Amino acid sequence: MAGRETVRAKQAASVRPALRVVRAPRARAPRRDRAAENRTSLIMLLAPASILTIVGLVMVLSAGSISAVEGYGTSFWYFERQSIYAVVGVLGLVVASRLSYGIWRKLAVPMLVAVVPLMLLTFHSTAGTSLYGASRWIDVGPVTIQPSEFAKIALIAVTATLLSTRWRNLGDVRQLALPLAPVVLVVGGIVILQRDLGTTVILCGTVFLMLFAAGVKGRHLSIVALTGLLATALLIFGESYRRTRFLDAFVHPWTDPKGAGYQLVQGLIALGSGGWLGVGLGASRQKWDYLPNAHSDFIFAIIGEELGLIGAIAVLVLFAALLFAGIRIAIRAPDTFGRLLASGVTSWIGLQTIVNLGAVTGLLPITGVPLPLVSFGGTALVVTLAGIGILASVARAGVATGRGPGGSRAALAGRRARA
Q1: Which of 66, 184, 249, 267 is the most exposed place for a label (fewest CB within 10 A)?
Q2: How open is the CA angle 53-396-150, to the nearest 5 degrees?
Q3: Domain presence at residue 18
Q4: Does the pLDDT of residue 158 top 60, yes or no?
Q5: What residues are paired with 140 via a beta bridge?
Q6: What is the pLDDT of residues 85-103, one digit of tens each?
Q7: Mean pLDDT of 129-153
Q8: What is the per-residue pLDDT for 136?
Q9: Residue 172 class from Cβ within 10 Å (0-12 exposed, 13-18 middle, 19+ buried)?
Q10: How far apart are CA 31 and CA 33, in angstroms?
């Protein structure tokens, strides 16, 4: 009997998907070592996030001072609003870090059910607000909310919940696609109707990376990736304004430097004008109505101009440190849901950073996606800081429990016995 049970256990293990963010199991660390790892994980996460937020406030003040004076009569208008949002975001970070990350499993579906009507409300002629042809925002008194930002956390939580509950059956396409595919299609479809291709790419790309982290088979990932690329191509070339932005503003911006390629050309001029050390904080010339959205989507160009190549590289290093901390937290999470939740938040922030920096440097088409923690944008800053808080919650749980990838005390006892 014992032999049969051993064979069955080996057969079950052979079909069990291997999470790609999992390390080899290890025994429980001493209490002091766990406390030290806890502090290290939190410092590695919160230090770059804090510095990037402060850098963002300073650069919003600098890059947005001219447009703020012209639009609102004071150069501090964008800075004051961003500071208020930063305070709210820090409070959200603290609350999210103190909550057990398991609560997001319970809140996943209610959050999604709540955020979908809010996203649809952006199309309402009275409540919704349009800018540059996109309908992404809702006016709530003096505050403007972008519901698609909340959809990022909701979709990550739903995906982590579905993948963790179906982890042993991820080889079954039906178990993998239902109900995850309809959820992604609904959320992504609404965002596409809002004319926000950049956010759609980030949402779908985040889910794809979570599938990869969960250990989905390569051939299934290839099908998903190919489908996504074909859909993106159809969306780009199926709309005249996207086709123009792609062909004229991205592929050949210098053929029309005063028209379709204007923003990218001015952004590249800003980056090239900074040299090694920059022209000095606050001394940007491009922010004087030459570079559109200097305080939001193209704030990295102003960073390169005022702080130079050294300052731009320092910002990139901070983002790299933040993403490294997120991956480290995902690896050390105590259970499958925690690993996937941390992987999703890290993937979202990383993808958004790449999309924004790619647009500013001309490596990717311009999509209107802000630079996390740095660009002006209240909802984006608050939600991103809350996402950092979720990572901190997973980090605290992963080290405090001292559990390995098995995620249970029984599994840990079994590994000790076998050792």
Answers
A1: 66
A2: 50
A3: no
A4: yes
A5: 143
A6: 999 999 999 999 999 999 9
A7: 80
A8: 77
A9: exposed
A10: 5
Q: Indicate the SS3 state at residue 158.
A: helix
pTM: 0.87
Residue 4 within any structural domain of the chain: no
Could you tell me which residues come within 8 angstroms of residue 277 by beta carbon, excluding any fewer than 6 positions away? 307, 308, 309, 310
d(CA 407, CA 414): 12
2 domain residue, yes or no = no
Two structure tokens written together for 297: 């989507």
What does the mean pLDDT of the chain come to? Answer: 85
What's the structural domain count of the chain? 1
Q: Angle CA(359)–CA(371)–CA(59) in degrees, nearest 5?
A: 110
Residue 218 included in any domain: yes
Q: Name the strands in the sheet holding 128-131, side by side, starting at the edge strand that comes first in the sequence.
A: 128-131, 134-140, 143-145
- The whole-number pLDDT of residue 341 equals 97
CA distance 180 to 417: 39
> Would you state the pLDDT for residue 398?
66
CA 82-71-365 angle, 5° bins? 70
Q: Domain of 118?
A: 30-401
Long-range Cβ contacts of 175-179 (<8 Å, 24+ apart): 176/211, 176/216, 176/220
Tokens in use for 218?
């390569």
As given in the structure block, the two tokens for residue 257 are 């430097």
